[in-house]
Specification:
By secondary structure, this protein is α/β, with parallel strands linked by helices. The chain has 10 helices and 16 strands. α3 links the parallel β11 and β12. α3 packs across α10. Bound molecules: zinc ion (ZN). The site of zinc ion has 6 residues, from loops.
């Protein structure tokens, strides 16, 4: 999150008071440790024939990266462990592509400089080594128009080895959508003969279309036809696609037709949290046997021990994600359980991909079976899952993704 209002001075004032003198702070703390290791102490700009140039004086080589954003056009420059020393950035020169420059603090010790642009352009950033009586300088050149391409060059002192990386596009977050069952495995069957596998595929396709229409997200389907896929095959598809989230879509069934409402499940590491959940897990896991062959769990079990720590984190994220989806679904339909349930679903066992299983309603309940067949309800469920994805990434966006910029 870009925090325009953060004041980088409060912490240094505090430390200065603690240590007796603010000027002593940098002498007492080793660079590249807790405190900002770099200090920007000057900022100038001027208008060249082809571009506007900003020059930031800095007290040493620094790590930075930059990327551009559209709608509105911006150039974002992130400076690692850097502070700005009461520097006023002069207003943009007349005729410049720049309309404003904003500075904020990220993660408490990284600096972000945002150039608001009147139109998209291809900027050039150069870290100049000391010379001509001056220290290190970060130079940002912004052409007046997109037709101008400035030749990139690395003028920095090779000994300082600053990381220079210009990134103009984001990595899409990959959302794996897993319509349950399929092919010879129909899943649960409603009183009117509705097969769970068809409902799951319908909802999955609607979710896929919504995800595809969302900037920053990319859908991957484990199946997009009425075919059988082993449970381990589903997680393998997600892994091969480098999925960031995994969502298995199902509809519930119970021997009592009055059972109703939607549920969200996550993996249970230490056994199912309830007998009902265990029963459910057994039923959904039967798919591998319906297909005629059970997959050996041995290798996965060894791997899961090795990956136990990361799996714990993944499960935390899964529960958080599941909770958000459950909250959204609770706005559109009754919930079977108001808590995210946990059970030993094989399909949720990816150690590194937060995974949930959504039971969209009870197909064994005649009223809910009828509802599951409607496009309106299928869309509402898909929309709820998408809203859950959006709220999840509003707080947990990985670096380098569009959500990290929102
Ligand atoms: Zn199912």
């Amino acid at each position: 999150m870009f925090d325009n209002s953060s004041n980088p001075w409060d912490r240094r004032k505090f430390l200065g008071a603690v240590l007796g003198s603010s000027s002593a702070v940098f002498g007492l703390v080793a660079p590249d440790k807790v405190l900002a290791a770099r200090l920007i102490n000057t900022a100038t700009n001027y208008r060249h024939a082809d571009y506007t140039r900003y020059v930031f004086g800095v007290n040493g080589p620094l790590d930075y990266k930059s990327f551009t954003l559209d709608n509105p056009s911006r150039l974002v420059v992130d400076l690692t462990q850097t502070e700005m020393n009461r520097v006023n950035i002069p207003p943009a020169p007349a005729g410049s592509i720049v309309s404003d420059v904003r500075v904020g603090v990220r993660d408490g010790y990284n600096l972000r400089i945002v150039f608001d642009l009147k139109a998209p352009v291809n900027p050039r950033l150069i870290l100049l080594p000391p010379g001509d009586g001056q220290g290190y300088r970060l130079v940002v050149d912004l052409p007046h128009d997109k037709a101008t391409t400035l030749v990139a060059r690395d003028a920095a002192d090779p000994d300082s080895k600053p990381k220079i990386q210009t990134q103009s596009t984001f990595r899409d977050l990959v959302i794996a959508i897993d319509p349950g069952h399929g092919g010879k495995d129909p899943g649960a069957i409603g009183h009117r003969g509705t097969k769970e596998k068809h409902i799951a595929l319908d909802i999955g396709r609607r979710l896929r279309d919504m995800v595809a229409a969302t900037p920053g997200l990319k859908p991957v389907m484990t199946r997009d036809s009425d075919k059988f896929i082993h449970l381990r095959g589903r997680t393998a598809i997600a892994r091969n696609a480098k999925a960031d989230l995994f969502i298995s879509v199902h509809s519930d069934a119970f021997r009592v037709t009055s059972a109703r409402g939607a549920s969200v499940f996550c993996l249970s590491q230490h056994g199912a949290t309830s007998e009902a959940a265990r029963w459910m897990a057994n039923r959904e896991n039967e798919a591998d046997f319906v297909g005629g062959a059970s997959i050996s769990d041995h290798d996965q079990d060894v791997a899961s021990v090795l990956l136990d720590l990361s799996q714990t984190k993944t499960l935390e994220n899964s529960l958080d994600f599941g909770h958000r989806v459950l909250g959204q679904i609770g706005d559109i339909t009754d919930l079977h359980s108001r808590r995210v349930q946990q059970a030993g679903f094989v399909v949720l066992k990816s150690p590194d991909i937060p995974s949930i299983l959504v039971e969209s309603a009870f197909i064994s309940n005649p009223q809910e079976e009828a509802r599951l067949r409607t496009a309106a309800y299928q869309k509402e469920i898909a929309r709820s899952i998408l809203d859950g994805i959006n709220t999840y990434y509003a707080e947990r966006a990985p670096e380098g993704t569009r959500y990290a910029m929102l």
